[in-house]
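no rush on this but wanted to send it before i forget. what follows is a protein written twice so to speak, once as letters and once as structure tokens for the fold. mainly i need to know what kind of three dimensional shape the backbone takes. thanks a lot i owe you, the record is right below.
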Amino acid sequence: MSEGNPLVLRGSIELAADEQNLCGEAPLWDHREQCLFWVDQDNPGLFKYLPGENQVYTLDRSVQISGIALNRRGGLVAGGRDGLFTWDEGNTCRTILDTHEGMPLVFNDLIAGPGGRIYGGTLYWDESGMVKKGNLYRVEPDGTVEVEDEGMILSNGLAFSPDNRTLYFSDSGRRSIFSYDVDPDSGCLSNRKTFTSFGED
């Protein structure tokens, strides 16, 4: 899409769920259950939509979640203001990590990557604005944590290219999407580039 060429939507848009979310985000399709998970970050909630039944279930309102990924053992890996943890449908949470080098981890979005790694971005905001800049982390299956990039204003959506060789990461505060090369063996990121940027409008 370029300036002067508006995005054209084909097909129709239908309302699937009306949960009155304040900040509905992090949609995640679960191919195992054929359902869609998503969260309400500002009015804490975790939801599941079953298209086959046209039914929405509220799964949890006890914990603030802003990013989710599928856990191969079942349930989800989730991130939010209390760090990174696993969640299952018995509403059982188990903390994976909540600090790194003495800094509390407040995750805003995350994604599961090759090899069972989790990549997640942190943010630190309050009512007055940004308190400090966040980081982009890589968490190994054994709990090892590495900082992959620093200085993020508002960490947001992550996605892999189809071959898993490129990770895309949004910093909404900079109105930019970055791309990183992904080492297929170690999962380490390198060679950050600005994939695209957006104007203030």
